[in-house]
């Protein structure tokens, strides 16, 4: 692990701590406030400060230190927590985020950052202590700070030995009393501190009165020699784990000890202190020495060169950093080690690609095995299919992340936006654990932001208006995520005024988007807001109203193969539903053929398949009556102007002679339509292969895929296909009308 | 212009000889059918499955303003790899026959004639002469620029 990588860990962790701070602050802002939350915030700030100190990022340390002090005072009930304080802490948190993002040099170069720094410190002044708390550089827990003070007061760490005592469980049985060792030690010098570690203490049921469960960390001030101290433990040293660190011990030895200690969840700070004052003292010194190296080279940013340089120059310090950070990570938010690992997303993508190939290969083998009529082979191939599917699902689940993290970020956005707009808004979140493809989660942030802002700006009314309408003054905004028929739906709803259809209509006419006599359904009307350049806000606000947002929203969602539905009721509110596919890499599809060309229709869109021969077209139109419902359908070979290829002509003749035509009924959003094809070949799992930039303009086809026999099939993009059919129909009507006029 | 000797892969389409910088070519495969892509302009013959990769195949003949290539037993696909500033792109080209790899020194390459070649001048890197035959050296990046091909597809679809 190079220093560079450790620094990277610091950035990631700092980010996580800042996020958790934000979440806690939001909760406090909502009026929930308990000691645990304050502790959490304090811990986050403290950890950031501590880690930043390790890297010599003084700008973070100095600022965070003051914040931490205020938090500490709040924790000790010395100051009251009110809205003002929360506001300032919010700002401080944001500033810490900016500080973490820059290096010390960049910070020194950016006067605005320094200004914010001093502004915020001034804002914090009412809450900062009048006592000189600055001397306690790293006060962690009250106990710790006491100890800290004690040590500083004594100011003399000479001849301080550190003894780590892990006596054997059988110690008592062998007639040894640990107390006698400690008593004897006190005859050699003065015992400064004893920390008893009781982590090994068992459940009452398993408790054996003759076993020893205690371990000790002892700081001993003594002029005795190593030999004398060692002799104390002469009778137990064979089956016990005893480490004696002399006053001259190197940092490495302490690091070894930290690593060796079995107490995994022990807070790093505690360990440092409990290990004896020496460790803290020396560790700090070592850290100072190290940061001097860093500052001397003048760049403590994430440059790989520096990392390597330091690794060569200063191996010791690097190991300190690693050990310290590792321990810190272990005690972070009680997530025990081994439950979570971080992986480079590229590696994950590579694995998923490979598994995609595996799926194709498996299908090929299945196809080949059908020709060989051997029961054992068929069985083996079936098993193979079963396992391939499991591997595929497991691999895909690696890419899935819960949407909750994204939703969580909106709490802050909503809070700030509400303040800016002078509205009262309550955000509720539902289905935070719904999982989505990581890629999608990344790309959803922007569209969601736009919709949420729009809902708050245009949807929710001002406090007075809400009162007048007899509503709760607090506007309700809801973010929800759930599964629906092979899709994931993300719904953003508000209980505001609803979308004003008339306003949209007027505006669209004014902007020349529709004609004065256009007849539009509600849905079509609502979708006009996604038209580029459309904005109904009478005045352009800071948040929305520039008309650049919503068309971007639509484009982003479509890029994810999703769609947006809008529903709205005047006076009651509106709902935006973003419908997304489960994953982008592999889809379950239905394999069909038209004029010898292979197509795959995403399974999630299919309702049923029927035989077209059994249904009559309604009055020559491309519509059938399906159980009393009129379903329009499109002809695959017409819409794609398919002509049988040379090889296919012969086979195709046969198909043309047979009147058997199949109709696949698909649904997308609220639209239901049929797709007429020649043959149905059944369900297939397929890996999506993008068609490449050249085919970007091709509508109705979302990608390609390889079939088991190596042939290429095109994956249909159903909504685009329906759009294409509508566009074609309009075009043909226009041309027909023109030709009739011509006559 | 090339200032020293470079290697070119030469191939024939409808009795005309063409050359392409060897560095841009990846492999030559036998023509074994092609999957047509719906609604595509004529210069896109379709796509092929190249060991699990879906690769578009261009009818160079159409792209250069000539008749579509006639598929026969010896038709082959030259797979080329373009590294443009935006992305790298793999394309197949249909050719009647692939001839040889030859060294052509810079001095043997002449500028494209301003007219008369019946090919857009910017597509031509130069003209080389070998055994009384002219070889049109194509500038693959210009002739097969993915961006321009995408524009042509878009125009065709509208």
From TrEMBL, chain A:
The keyword DNA-binding does not apply. The modification Phosphohistidine is found at residue 46. Residues 376-584 form the Histidine kinase domain. The keyword Lipoprotein does not apply. Residues 132-152 are annotated as: Disordered. It catalyses: ATP + protein L-histidine = ADP + protein N-phospho-L-histidine. Pfam families: CheW (PF01584), H-kinase_dim (PF02895), HATPase_c (PF02518), Hpt (PF01627). This is Chemotaxis protein CheA. It comes from Colwellia psychrerythraea (Vibrio psychroerythus). Residues 586-727 form the CheW-like domain.
UniProtKB/TrEMBL annotation, chain B:
GO terms for biological process: chemotaxis; signal transduction. Residues 5-149 form the CheW-like domain. One of its GO terms (cellular component) is cytosol. InterPro entries: CheW, CheW-like_dom_sf, CheW-lke_dom. This is CheW protein.
């Amino acid at each position: 692990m190079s220093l560079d990588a450790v620094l990277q860990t610091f950035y990631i962790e700092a980010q996580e701590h800042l996020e958790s701070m934000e979440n806690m602050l939001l909760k406090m802002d909502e009026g929930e406030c308990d000691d645990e939350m304050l502790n959490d915030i304090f811990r986050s700030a403290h950890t950031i400060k501590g880690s930043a100190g390790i890297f010599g990022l003084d700008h973070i340390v100095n600022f965070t230190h003051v914040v931490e002090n205020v938090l500490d005072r709040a924790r000790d009930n010395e100051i009251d927590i009110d809205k003002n304080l929360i506001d300032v802490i919010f700002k401080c948190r944001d500033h810490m985020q900016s500080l973490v993002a820059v290096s010390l040099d960049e910070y020194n170069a950016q006067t605005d950052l320094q200004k914010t720094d001093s502004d915020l410190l001034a804002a914090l002044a009412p809450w900062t202590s009048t006592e000189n708390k600055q001397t306690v550089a790293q006060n962690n827990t009250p106990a710790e700070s006491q100890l800290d003070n004690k040590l500083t007061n004594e100011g003399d760490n000479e001849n301080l030995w550190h003894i780590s005592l892990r006596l054997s469980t059988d110690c008592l049985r062998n007639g040894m009393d640990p107390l006698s060792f400690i008593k004897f030690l006190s005859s050699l010098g003065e015992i400064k501190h004893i920390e008893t570690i009781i982590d090994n203490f068992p459940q009452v049921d398993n408790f054996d009165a003759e076993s020893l469960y205690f371990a000790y960390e002892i700081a001993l001030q003594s002029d005795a020699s190593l030999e004398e101290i060692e002799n104390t433990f002469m009778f137990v040293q064979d089956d016990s784990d005893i480490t004696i660190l002399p006053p001259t011990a190197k940092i490495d030895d302490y690091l070894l000890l930290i690593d060796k200690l079995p107490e995994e969840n022990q807070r790093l700070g505690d360990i440092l202190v409990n290990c004896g004052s020496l460790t803290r003292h020396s560790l700090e010194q070592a850290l100072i020495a190290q940061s001097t190296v860093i500052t001397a080279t003048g760049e403590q940013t994430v440059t790989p060169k520096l990392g390597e340089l330091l690794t060569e120059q200063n191996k010791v310090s690097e190991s300190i950093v690693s050990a310290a950070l590792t321990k810190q990570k272990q005690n972070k938010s009680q997530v025990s080690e081994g439950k979570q690992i971080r992986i480079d997303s590229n590696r994950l993508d590579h694995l998923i690609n490979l598994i995609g190939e595996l799926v194709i290969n498996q299908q090929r083998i299945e196809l080949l095995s059908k020709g060989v009529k051997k029961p054992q082979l068929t069985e083996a191939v079936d098993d193979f299919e079963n396992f391939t599917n499991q591997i595929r699902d497991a691999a895909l689940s690696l890419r899935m992340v819960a949407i909750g993290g994204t939703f969580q970020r909106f709490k802050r956005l909503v809070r700030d936006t509400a303040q800016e707009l002078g509205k009262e808004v309550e955000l509720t979140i539902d289905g935070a654990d719904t999982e989505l493809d990581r890629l999608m989660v990344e790309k959803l942030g922007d569209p969601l932001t736009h919709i949420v802002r729009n809902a708050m700006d245009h949807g929710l009314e001002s406090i007075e208006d809400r009162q007048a309408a007899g509503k709760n003054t607090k506007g309700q905004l809801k973010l929800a995520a759930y599964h629906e028929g092979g899709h994931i739906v993300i719904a953003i709803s508000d209980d505001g005024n609803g979308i004003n259809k008339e306003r949209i209509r007027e505006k669209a006419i004014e902007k020349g988007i529709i004609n004065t006599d256009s007849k539009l359904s509600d849905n079509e009307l609502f979708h006009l807001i996604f038209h580029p350049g459309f904005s109904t806000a009478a005045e352009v606000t800071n948040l929305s109203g520039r008309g650049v947002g919503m068309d971007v929203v639509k484009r982003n969602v479509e890029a994810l193969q999703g769609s947006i539905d809008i529903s709205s009721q005047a006076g009651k509110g509106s709902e935006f539903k973003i419908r997304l596919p489960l994953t982008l890499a592999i889809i379950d599809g239905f394999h069909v053929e038209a004029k010898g060309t292979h197509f795959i229709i995403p399974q999630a869109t299919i309702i049923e398949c029927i035989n077209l021969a059994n249904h009559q077209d309604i009055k020559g139109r491309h519509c059938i009556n399906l159980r009393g419902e009129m379903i329009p359908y499109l002809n695959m070979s017409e819409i794609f102007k398919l002509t049988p290829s040379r090889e296919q002509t012969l086979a195709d003749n046969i198909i043309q002679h047979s009147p058997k035509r199949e109709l696949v009924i698909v649904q997308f959003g609220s639209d239901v339509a049929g797709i007429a094809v020649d043959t149905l070949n059944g369900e297939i799992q397929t890996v999506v292969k993008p068609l490449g930039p050249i085919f970007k303009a091709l509508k109705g086809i979302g990608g390609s895929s390889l079939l088991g026999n190596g042939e290429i099939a095109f994956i249909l993009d159903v909504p685009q296909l329906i759009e294409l059919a509508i566009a074609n129909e309009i075009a043909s009507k226009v041309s027909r009308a023109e030709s009739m006029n011509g006559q | 212009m090339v200032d020293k000797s470079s290697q070119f892969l030469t191939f024939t389409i409808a009795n005309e000889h063409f050359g392409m910088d060897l560095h841009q070519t990846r492999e030559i495969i036998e023509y074994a059918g092609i999957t047509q892509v719906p609604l595509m302009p004529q210069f896109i013959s379709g796509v092929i499955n190249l060991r699990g990769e879906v690769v578009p195949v261009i009818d160079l003949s159409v792209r250069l303003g000539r008749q579509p290539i006639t598929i026969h037993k010896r038709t082959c696909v030259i797979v080329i790899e373009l590294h443009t500033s935006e992305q790298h792109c793999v394309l197949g080209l249909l050719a009647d026959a692939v001839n040889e790899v030859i060294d052509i020194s810079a001095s043997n390459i002449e500028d494209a004639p301003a007219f008369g070649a019946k090919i857009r001048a910017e597509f031509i890197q130069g003209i080389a002469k070998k055994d009384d035959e002219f070889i049109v050296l194509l500038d693959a990046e210009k002739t097969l620029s993915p961006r321009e091909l995408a524009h042509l597809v878009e125009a065709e679809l509208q």
